[in-house]
Amino acid sequence: MMKKIVFLGCGSMGEAILAGMLAAGVSPLSVVVTVRRPERANELAIRHGVTALASNEESGANAQAVEGASVVILGVKPVGITALCQEIAGSLESNAVVISVAAAVSLAQLEGALRPGQPVVRSMPNTPLKVGRGVVALSAGSSVDEHHLASAHEIFDGSGVVLDIAEDQQNAVSAISGSGPAYAFYLAEAMAAAAQDFGLSPQIAHVLARETVAGAGMMLAEPGANATELRRAVTSPKGTTEQAIASFDREGLPGIIRKGAQAAAARAAEITKELSALN
């Protein structure tokens, strides 16, 4: 018998997870998706072959969708997670694992909005899941066993690397891998701006920065690759790259990156408190 998998909310991140899961071999016949707009539901049904319901047309779509489900992925915005959990709590199978992809929503908040003993997993995916190069950190709730955690891994395995971490490490993961793609894009922006300072056209500057950052990322993704070793291989003694790296060190770039990550982690903790105060 096929395991029923349900996505409650399916924006760009949810669709990336869905696409990776289907590409890994999960049958679309086993998947039910709920979204608000019928246009979006129709789009997902056509594109992926899944059953898609529109809650704007069917008021009980979410509760209906989770009936008999083995895995339920919560893909709505953080501010709406608690209400969604309360809405579906009575319709969930007691052994169904509920996976949240909402940033900053704690396991305690999720478990408190569901029936006692409901297995819950908190996840932190990042946007490269859209190209199959994501990283996802999972934290298991108090009622999660090995079977539940394995089911959570299966959902994300087709989209990237999956790691198990303690929940108190979630903010750190958010600051590094969750926000991290923006850091790489920011670097590419700065490189393109520097290229234009040399008189290169915006178009050429953009291509140089984009392809260099993307290519370096692909090299770093090779099995056994190490960032320090790769950097050293490009940094010839008394060469041009060595001068650039030395300048970065003098300007304190490593410390700037650390401070940025710390600010991101602190903000994640603040958001958790703000969401807790709302409920």
TrEMBL record:
Predominant subcellular localization, coarse grouping: cytoplasm
Which reactions are catalysed by this chain? L-proline + NAD(+) = (S)-1-pyrroline-5-carboxylate + NADH + 2 H(+); L-proline + NADP(+) = (S)-1-pyrroline-5-carboxylate + NADPH + 2 H(+)
Question: Which residues hold NADPH?
Answer: N62
Q: Which InterPro entries match?
A: 6-PGluconate_DH-like_C_sf (IPR008927), NAD(P)-bd_dom_sf (IPR036291), P5C_Rdtase_cat_N (IPR028939), P5CR-like_CS (IPR053790), P5CR_dimer (IPR029036), Pyrroline-COOH_reductase (IPR000304)
Annotated ranges, domain Pyrroline-5-carboxylate reductase catalytic N-terminal: 4-103
Cite the binding residues for NADP(+). L8, G9, C10, G11, S12, M13
Does Amino-acid biosynthesis count among this protein's keywords?
yes
- What Gene Ontology cellular-component terms does the record carry? cytoplasm
Q: Where in the cell is it found?
A: Cytoplasm
Instruction: Say yes or no: keyword Isomerase present.
Output: no
Q: What is this protein called?
A: Pyrroline-5-carboxylate reductase
Q: What is the lineage of its organism?
A: Bacteria, Bacillati, Actinomycetota, Actinomycetes, Micrococcales
